[in-house]
Write a structure and sequence with these properties.
- This protein is an alpha+beta fold and 510 residues long.
- It folds into 3 domains: 1-84, OB fold (Dihydrolipoamide Acetyltransferase, E2P) (Beta Barrel); 91-197, RNA polymerase II/Efflux pump adaptor protein, barrel-sandwich hybrid domain (OB fold (Dihydrolipoamide Acetyltransferase, E2P), Beta Barrel), CATH 2.40.50; 290-508, 2-Layer Sandwich (Chloramphenicol Acetyltransferase), CATH 3.30.559.
- The protein has 13 helices and 27 strands.
- It has helices at residues 79-89, 189-194, 202-209, 219-228, 246-251, 261-273, 288-303, 316-333, 339-353, 397-412, 418-421, 486-501, 504-508; strands at residues 2-6, 16-22, 29-30, 35-40, 45-49, 54-58, 65-67, 71-76, 109-114, 124-130, 137-138, 143-148, 153-157, 162-166, 173-175, 179-185, 306-314, 360-362, 365-367, 374-376, 378-380, 383-385, 388-389, 426-430, 449-453, 456-463, 466-480.
- The strands form 7 sheets. Strands 17, 20, 23, 24, 25, 26 and 27 form a 7-stranded mixed β-sheet that branches. The protein has a 4-stranded antiparallel β-sheet with strand order 1-8-6-3.
- A hairpin with a 2-residue loop joins strand 21 and strand 22 (383-385).
């Protein structure tokens, strides 16, 4: 029997894909979930796994463009797969002779563990690590592995109680719905007792003692140990199966090696013989988030006509206003009065005045938004994220400050949801907190513009014919010239400058 494979759905707005390359040839024997080809859409490239084991029969060639749902290949059942099928897929039965006569024979059911859907725009995940090993007895809802998408890391609980068999290894990239493990469920205690236990050997006891979790740090623990420069092998784990937890990493201290006088003499002698110092290197696999960021940034540079316009803002009026009211503001509203609320409010007002800056391109159309959902770039432990402040044009300064604090806290705790990071119409990024004087921020696609804030520096400026020292900030607006003309971009930035240098304009809406 042959199984016809079709092009899967890869997103709401994607209607067709191109076959980038076939990793297997026509007539090859392929296994289930083995990658057979790479498909390319207008937004991403992804791998297509085989839906069954058998002989591959290619229908569409490399370079062909296919509609979603179109046939791409067939998997014909081979003789080898037919013969091996009972061993791999049939439910195993325990013989009646091994069970007491008054108890019925029990059957073991094989349950597939599949990658769950974690968001509309996510088509694949990476297996960060396995918390459990093949052969482990696991309980329902017990964490068995950690999955990492391009936006978040999450834990996968077991859907059933039973014996775990791992299919996909740590580091493998698996599409949504792909099978990563199986769970053998349904065996009764009587049947389990009737099955003779394997005789322990030296190798088996060693493997049980030194399993994958033993001495293996969690993602947060690994980051802390890396920052401290401590090897995971030097830390004793207190977690499940000896796993190194975040608390273990925080308590760990680097041991300074001491050497004897004889060893020191030998080292100095060997050092004098060679003038070349040892220089180490370290390689780390890019995370899914970092790979996605890289692809999108390159796509923005290649697909947009990006330009940047600059201006400077005299921050003295805002700083004087904050100095006068920040204590009273915090006493009443419970949050501090920072610069971000002024910039967010100023941009929200300017976006209403220049709607083309708040628009984006969708195919052959320009979509205009009558609301200002402003994305705020935040540096999180896993990388740069951009949570969104919804309807900023309707919010007060206190509401904006509260939302900024809430989103920034969730970002640093890696608790942001997909809904909180999607749908922005304009972005603000503040490189000034890291000391940046001037930069050209890159557009956050599919948006058409981004405002870059920078550090505040005391500079001499001319005020009413007199030279004065004022706190000046350079601001930059990067924009897509395909939709935004130079006049609109410059006028938008001038409007933001006017609102910031005279904050009463924002309060009076003039």
């Amino acid at each position: 029997m042959a199984i016809e494979m079709k092009v899967p759905s890869v997103g709401e707005s994607v209607t067709e894909v191109t076959i980038a390359s076939w990793t297997k040839k026509d007539g090859d024997h392929v296994k289930m979930d083995e990658v057979i080809c790479e498909l390319e859409s207008d937004k991403a490239t992804f791998e297509l796994p085989s839906e069954a084991e058998g002989i591959l029969r290619i229908i569409a060639k490399e370079g062909e463009t296919l509609q979603i749902g179109a046939p791409i290949c067939r998997i014909e059942e081979s003789k080898a797969s037919v013969e091996s099928k009972p061993l791999e897929t049939k439910v195993q039965e325990v013989s009646v002779s091994a069970v007491p006569e008054n108890k019925p024979s029990a059957k073991a059911e094989i349950l597939d563990v599949k990658v769950p859907s974690v968001g509309e725009s996510i088509t694949e995940v990476t297996i960060s690590n396995w918390v459990k090993n093949t052969g482990d007895q696991i309980n329902m809802d017990e964490i068995i592995c950690e999955l990492e998408s391009d936006k978040a890391t999450f834990e996968l609980p077991s859907p059933q109680t039973g014996k775990l068999t791992i299919i996909a290894k740590a580091g493998d990239v698996v599409t949504i719905g792909g099978i990563i493990a199986t769970i053998e469920v349904g065996l009764s205690n009587a049947v389990a007792a009737a099955v003779p236990a394997p005789v322990p050997t030296e190798n088996s006891s060693s493997s049980n003692k030194d399993n994958y979790a033993s001495g293996h740090p969690s993602p947060s623990a690994a980051k802390i140990l890396e920052e401290k420069g401590i090897s995971a092998s030097a830390v004793k784990g207190t977690g499940v199966d000896g796993r190194i937890t975040k608390e273990d990493a925080q308590k760990a201290e680097k041991v300074v090696a001491t050497s004897s006088p004889a060893a020191s003499t030998a080292e100095s002698t060997s050092a004098s013989k060679s003038s070349v110092e040892f220089r180490g290197q370290k390689r780390e696999k890019m995370s899914s988030l970092r790979k996605t960021i890289a692809k999108r940034l390159v796509a923005v540079k290649n697909e947009t006509a990006m330009l940047t316009t600059f201006n400077e803002v005299d921050m003295k009026p805002i700083m004087d206003l904050r100095a006068s009211y920040k204590d009273k503001f915090k006493e009443i509203h419970g949050v501090g009065l920072g610069f971000m609320s002024f910039f967010t409010k100023a941009c929200a007002i300017a976006l209403q005045d220049f709607p083309v800056v708040n628009a984006y391109i969708d195919g052959d159309e320009v979509v205009y938004n009558d609301f200002a959902d402003i994305s705020i770039a935040v540096s999180a432990p896993r990388g740069l994220v951009v949570p969104v402040i919804r309807n900023a044009e309707k919010m007060t300064f206190a509401e904006i400050e509260s939302e900024v604090v809430r989103l920034a806290t969730r970002a640093r705790d890696n608790k942001l949801t997909l809904e909180e990071m999607t749908g922005g119409t304009f972005t603000i990024t503040n490189g000034g907190i890291f000391g940046s004087m001037l930069s050209t921020p890159i557009i956050n696609a599919p948006q058409s513009a981004i405002l870059g804030m920078h550090n505040i520096v005391q500079r001499p400026v001319a005020i009413n014919g007199q030279v004065e020292i004022r706190p000046i900030m350079y601001v930059a607006l990067s924009y897509d010239h395909r939709t935004i003309d130079g006049k609109d971009s410059v006028s938008f930035l001038v409007r933001v400058k006017q609102l910031l240098e005279d904050p009463m304009r924002m309060l009076l809406a003039v």
